Amino acid sequence: MSRFSGNIEREYAIPTVALSNENIVSFGIDTHAKYSTGMPLRFVGVPYPFTGLSKEQLEIYVEEGKDKVTGKPIMQAIIDALTIPIKESEIPKPLPEPRFLPPGTEENLRRLFKDKGWTDYNPIILPTEERVIEILKGTSHEPSELVKEAAGTFGTTRPFTVEKVAIIAVMAGAKPEYLPTILALSSQVPYVDSTTSSARMVLINGPIREEIGVNSGIGALGPNAEANSVIGRSMVLIHKIIQGYQEGVSGFSSLSNPLLYNNLTIGENEEALPEGWKPFHVQMGHKPEESTLTVFFGWNFVNCSGSVVEHYAPQLLMRDFTRVLAATGAATLIMDPSVADLLRNSQGFETKEAFSEWLSQNAEVPEKMYWANSIVSGMRGPSGDTGWRNKSNDTLIKHLPNPNSIRTVVVGGETASVWFITDFMAGRPVSIDAWR
Amino acid sequence: MKGKLLSLTCLFAVTVLITSGAIMTPAVCNPAPSKEKLITVMNPAITEMPAKQVSLAPRLDTLRGKTIYLVDLNYEGINGTPVMGEIQAWFTKNMPDVKTLLKLKKGSYIADDPALWKEIADSGGDGVILGVAG
Question: Nearest-CA neighbor of B47 among A202, A357, A95, A64?
């Protein structure tokens, strides 16, 4: 919305006012204006939800409703936004952050870190210089090396160095040998956010898994390994501190998502892959001996509940379960090696790619159900009415049309033939070795 | 109870000291904890750089006699929202000398529509009301 307002104001010098929901309009007139658009765009705040209100409700609102920004009657606020001259707003200045914080007691510093929104509200390790120096032994990179500039949400400029990542790694409880992985993770900011309940997954491939003890076997998705736990937690702190994400200030996820506590940080059980099934990073063009990290993004994480049964092949249940995904056209299956073995040896899927191809051809949903998901209709919806709304409920659509958007990750300890299906979209694997 | 125990402890300490000959006068026991150690830690915060400031278009002196475009963002990708029609009805009723024109932006709500912005400019649009996100 602010992009459109900005384009009209900047390119055509036409005064513009945007109506936006009350929960995010504060972001538009403050943080976004200061650090992203650089324009003091005019907004009027409307209640949320707004788009579902009836014509009668809207009629009353236009007559009697108030702007959530100024408190003025809504129409007066709109008129004022187009007519009251812009005040010479003060140009925000960067506030340089000192390298050290003022000395404090442990209790006060812990409180400060929480008050600043720098923690996940579990206890952190305070980043003394000695601890930071120690953890920096885990990389050959200079502490002053710039990792990235455009680190903020919406790509705002928040330059950060190796030293900043090391500070965060200390806070999360990392060991020096985790630092290359955490640096690779930090290089992927800004992570995608949404007002919906989106989530992320971190997949680690290659020899680094064994070197630092990333769990890819029994209990890998649970709180059962230090490396998975600490690296996943580091992502939370990177998101908050480096990206500058603060719920209610620069981000507005209504329910958020419990997966964000650890960001599903796992290693692929490459050693347990069936013959012909390649590790994820090798599928994506890396050598087996390279260590990589991949960030996935999506919404749904559906548990198969019980083990695979004899009378209904696992791929059929997986196909059925795709119906509840967010219809982004992407799916990532997380399966125990025993399920991969069944798919390979009993069902004839000789490669991960063959399984993706089958699922792409066989996963279908009623077209009305497909478009009912606002992720699809809002972001990919046809312009105007293309006639799909008049189709029968029985019309089916292949909702995973691209097999390259269907990924399989094998992980687990072979104590049960279980799996999860998600709508996670895979990013590109990035090198961990480059940060050693 | 805690205070009583503390007093007994102090008394015991004084007794021991006197018995040992270390002091000859009654000692005062200070129950206050010693000053807590101060720690210096590194600062994790990042300096965010403000965006280059860009001026807005000059505001209108009045809406009377002007042409205002009401642009529906197509937020849900299907119908848009009837609120723009209600805003238009309000102008017709309360400020009939404001000319209002309704437009539906093409594409999804995140897709830009530069052709529409140009159309508004070329046709002499004086102001734009965009909505609604949410």
Answer: A95
